[in-house]
Amino acid sequence: MTDVTTKKKTGGFRDLRLIFGGSQSSARQFGILGALIVIIVYYQIVTGGKTLNPSNLINIVNGNSYVLILAIGMVMVIVAGHIDLSVGSVAAFVGIIVAQSMYVWHLPWPLAMILGLVVGALVGAWQGWWVAYVGVPAFIVTLAGMLFFRGANQFVGNSTSIPVPQEFKFIGGGYIPDFGPDFGFSNPTLILGALVAVAIVWQEFRARRIQRVMGAEVAPVWVLVVKLALLLGVVTLATILFASGRVGTSYPIAGIILGVLVLVYSYITNNTIIGRHIYAVGGNWRAAELSGVNIRRVNFFVMWNMSVIASLAGMMWIARSVASGPGDGVGWELDAIAAVFIGGAAVSGGIGTIVGSIVGGLVIAVLNNGLQLTSAGADVVQMVKGLVLLLAVGIDVYSKRQGRPSIIGLLTQRRKGPFDDTPAALQDAKTPTPAGGAQDTVRPQDLTPEG
Amino acid sequence: MESAAPTSPTILEMRSITKEFPGVKALENVNLTVRAGEIHSICGENGAGKSTLMKVLSGVYPYGTYDGQVIYQGSEVRFNNIKQSEHAGIVIIHQELALVPLLSITENIFMGNEPTKFGSIDWVEAKVRAKELLARVGLDEDPDTLIKNIGVGKQQLVEIAKALNKSVKLLILDEPTAALNESDSQHLLDLLRGLKGRGITSIMISHKLNEIEEISDSITILRDGKTIETLDVEHDGVDEDRIIRGMVGRALDNRFPERNPHIGEVFFEVKNWNVRHPLIAERKVVKNSSFVVRRGEVVGFAGLMGAGRTELAMSIFGRAYGIYESGTIYKDGKEVRLRTVQDAIDHGLAYVSEDRKALGLNLLDDIKRSTVAAKLRKISNRFGTVDKAQEYTISDKYRTSLRIKTPSVDEGVNKLSGGNQQKVVLAKWMFTDPDLLILDEPTRGIDVGAKTEIYGIIRDLAASGKGVILISSELPELLGVSDRIYTIFEGQITNDLPVSEADPETLMRSMTSAPTHTSNKKAAIR
């Protein structure tokens, strides 16, 4: 063994990539994050500063939290190799039950919320059972669920809207009440921003300490400084913007719920056994099965979890619109799925991240918002959304077929070394199967030189 | 049996065919001469290059991806795809049948070749011709029957009918009788003789030496991608022993680590194990198999492809294959029931699959995560949180000790070569700290250097007191690494030999024929 195997070269573009985490999948998120920034800057200019205006930002968060929350559940479903078409209908079904329970049965709102989550869990168990234990494809199970729960919403609500009490409104359109001295900013938002900043710094230093303990590669100090400066800059800007909104507003509660869920689910997918198993099943379920993974349990979990999240999204929606109606949640599943795929998930499963999906969802949200600010109609918004989805996945598929991670990945590619990617010359030949066709389906990324 | 006269013209000549895959020479200067109107068999161990040679001939590997010349009916041919070779009258029938189960016999026979009338398919014509073709292959079935509703033997005949429809001159059959029972096989061989009478030349690849001996006019033997010899059955007085000698007769070299076994007592025992096929319930894949493994012992399992070695191993590994019928497993003297893979892992079993890419690894994952994948609990707390620092240090330790060639364990496993991928799979199972490792073709598709390293790892594992089961198609490998060898034929254990008593010829004999009464008893007693 030579020295190259123990040391990685660093410098230049490669270190730049380290700012965003370094691995291949982060490079793809990096690409979509770049697209998001470009879109924000574009609309900021075109609308003459209306995009990054405090009340518009609060609007974007309030108006999209429910879809972003759905994307969290959806990315896990898609990584495991399934799909869930029923989330919009499930959200509407739970919404009408929660509204009914408060308006007709006069349940206090905390109990009504618990009821909503329980109903969501039951719906999820039902769909998860069909997918995981009976073996019906999730597409069919959730298509059936989409029809059934849409009907169930109308059955429960008699196809009419049911209002919800004002005190329930906070989870969908509420703000943290202001306190303390008046600086012209929302104090709770400032405190929240400060907490996030401290958490980011703490997390960065903790990660470096762990890397050093493991004896792994630690990025140079300048990378740390640049990264922290960038992140803290964004946090500060966002804090000031959100804090300087109309009196009585702050960073929305819906946004806080979203943030907490992102943290919790990122932790689950990255650091826990069940998270690992989701990726294992999606990447190669047969190998996962032979490694002792209980595939049925994993499939059940992702489907169940999706419905629980959908029930939360449904409640946030009725809270924001102060009523539950028969048309709630129509098309949500498609928005969530689009967010996940724009965020870099693979159609065949196994690849995808929570953060990527959120960024993907934000791309749609900001585009949507920008188009509305420039007074484009709903027709144009739909058309643009469709094209963005096709383009994002198309670029991804194309660059994968070319054996490159992505356009951004190309820019940040490591310089040629002894262990670099398969030379292009070897890529058109299949791996030999001396015993005769045991491995007849070889995907492009599977090609490896022997020896 | 009448044989084509030696003077009959040559229909096919393949001259110094060389086909390379990255890192592996699958064929090296192979020559094959086939006379018109004969039945020519190609023999060789698994991986000798038989199927690759036929893929070159039929254009699966297009002209330009191999070196050498193919002379067919007197002129050089350069096929770019199967369509072109079929047009020239060369039809290959693959081991895995290429029929669509949910379509009818007629639809399958004429697939891609449909008779048309005014641009639409002429089904009347198709059915009439299908009936004729079925009659020619001696199959009495309604042409509207769906393929899934007829047995494998009849499906094979449909394949041949399909070939006849393409006015075949040279028919290539890859293991045609592998999945057939005795009477179906006999029928197929009779049919081949009948076709020969009508002037159709056949090339047959088969592992069943008795059939080869019975039907062939000539036999070409391949070994390690090279032509060893071509035998004329009538003149050379060929029998099974003669073929076996050609197939295995190679000197064992010193690529195997020194053996210094400390074999302890029996700690793992399987008794009267019976397993049925997962889809075809009446088919028994493992029949009444019993075997034992001792501590520190490397036990080889020899058998040809389809003999049931993998099925036996996987069915023991938490019933990961087939439908369990009966049989018991004892570990350390106590009966254990391994109903799931998790049970098997918990009881100290590990199974390294023969198909690394399809069953062994998640190719989307990186090395460190792959290494710990089979026992995440070992490095996680009671809330199920994985300790990433441990994950890194442990996988890095395996990287060093197994000499996995990679800059870092953060790399994706898809970037590794076959040999290094296999080492990651080995690391993954060594991490579960097993008592018994089942290695199914652990050196398939990897180069000689990495093979030697893997043999070293196997010996080290045995030296540390673990039991190892080594399933392999390569007899030299089995003889070089194992302490004791079982042979399997058609789902049954046919022999049990200490390596000192085993030689390639004895093994090959037990691998290609049903057990004699005595050896059967011997296996059952142990």
Features:
heterodimer; A: 451 residues; mainly alpha; ABC transporter involved in vitamin B12 uptake, BtuC; 2 domains; two-stranded antiparallel ribbon; 66% helix; 1% strand; globular; disordered N terminus; disordered C terminus; B: 526 residues; alpha/beta; Rossmann fold; six-stranded mixed sheet; 33% helix
Top CATH class of the largest domain in chain A? Mainly Alpha
Number of individual domains of chain A: 2
Instruction: State the separation between the terminal residues of chain A, measured CA to CA.
Output: 15 Å
Number of domains of chain B: 4
DSSP strand content of chain B: 25-35%
What's the total helix number of chain A? Answer: 17
Q: Taking all residues together, what is the mean pLDDT of chain B?
A: 86
Record the strand order, biggest sheet of chain B: 6-9-10-3-11-12
**Major beta sheet summary of chain A:** 2 strands, antiparallel
CATH architecture annotation of the largest domain in chain A:
Orthogonal Bundle
CATH superfamily of the largest domain in chain B: P-loop containing nucleotide triphosphate hydrolases
**Poorly predicted segments of chain A:** 1-12, 21-25, 403-451
Largest interface: A-B, 59 and 79 residues
The sequence of SSEs of chain A as H and E is HHHHHHEHHHHHHHEHHHH
